[in-house]
Amino acid sequence: MIRVQLPYHLRNLAGVEREIEVTVSGAITQRSVLAAIEADYPMLRGAIRDQKSGVRRAFIRFFACERDLSHDDPDAPLPDAVASGQEPLLIVGAIAGG
Description:
22% of the residues lie in helices and 20% in strands. By secondary structure, it is of the alpha+beta class. It has one domain (2-93): Ubiquitin-like (UB roll), CATH 3.10.20.30. A 5-stranded mixed β-sheet has the order 2-1-5-3-4, with helices on one face. The N and C termini lie far apart (39 Å). The model has no long low-confidence stretch (mean pLDDT 95).
């Protein structure tokens, strides 16, 4: 099981608590984890990444093991601690303003 922590607005949209668990078959990557999230929580399709291009939304960031993974290749393996369920993948809603 892959643990994922969602920001407040996505938790409300999905009707879940702060942390969810998803099952991923094959390589544990951003792309495969997001596909599992969207399969289990279809209401989140298009909220985290663009439905057509699969590109991360501008105001969404990914963190794990104290690293910003937002600009990593979506097919790069996630850290072992995330793949083993020891650490969660954090999906964070970025804030902008001026």
